[in-house]
Amino acid sequence: MLKDMILRDFVEELASNSPAPGGGSVAALSGSLAGALTCMVFNLTVGKKDYNEFDEAKRKAIDLGLTESKKFKNEFLDLMEKDVEAFMDLMAAFKMPKSEENEIKLRGEKIRSGYKKALEIPLEVAKQALKIYDYIETASKWGNKNAVSDAGVAAILNQSAIEGAVLNVRINLSSIKDEDYKNNIEKQCTVLLSEGLRRKEEIIETVNSRIMAK
What is residue 129's predicted lDDT score, i.e. its pLDDT? Predict the structure, then answer.
């Protein structure tokens, strides 16, 4: 499994002529790294002087952020694996026999469902990445001031996860003929991109403000 590989081996596999893992897996990995960095900021915050001086609402927000960031960190790794599985299933569909009419029909059905599965995984990556911005924002506002830059990097990686995932949605979407389905997915992508960029820019502004105030 990709998530169990040594980092150097993963990078070498990514650099090889194998089509998977590819951009979809890297988008999911970016989300996981964003989650991990957010966890780090919270772990460097909980129990420290500033944390103990916060009111109960802020402490609860930080505690929730730590719990949820851990979940997202692991969920994105699972999505990384699912992305590769979806791609391999699609490739297997193309290799199905097509000599007889019933074989052609079955192959076509498998290819169509394969494309949908291959785009729905990165779409889920983008949706989950948008959710984690809530916790990155908390880290940027109230996290340990000495680690606030890490919250900024988390936001940048998280937006990379969204934008990379959407590219993988769109390349699979281009092979689908169902116009209603395509329009619905494209609308979702547009919202994810614009809302994600807005959240990232707000967080980066907060991070820079806290850095300059040190």
Answer: 98
Entry pTM? 0.94
CB 127 within 8 A of CB 29: no
Does 52 score more than 90 pLDDT? yes
User: Between vectors from CA 191 to CA 188 and to CA 196, what angle results, nearest 5°?
Assistant: 125
71 CB-contact burial (10 Å; exposed 0-12 / middle 13-18 / buried 19+): middle
Q: How far apart are CA 137 and CA 130, in angstroms?
A: 11
Which of 70, 73, 112 minimizes the C-alpha distance to 94?
112
Dist CA 47 CA 168 (whole Å): 41
Collect all residues with Cβ–Cβ distance below 8 Å to 111 and sequence separation of at least 6.
Answer: 90, 93, 94
* DSSP label at residue 46: T
188 burial (CB, 10 Å; 0-12 / 13-18 / 19+) is middle
97 vs 67, higher pLDDT: 67
Contacts of 192 (CB under 8 A, 6+ apart): 126, 127, 130, 162, 166
State residue 19's pLDDT score. 84
pLDDT of amino acid 100: 86
Find, among 64, 10, 38, 24, the residue nearest to 156 by Cα: 38
Q: Is 4 exposed, middle or buried (0-12, 13-18, 19+ CB in 10 A)?
A: exposed
Judge whether 192 and 162 are in contact, CB under 8 Å: yes
What would the two tokens of residue 40 be? 């780090």
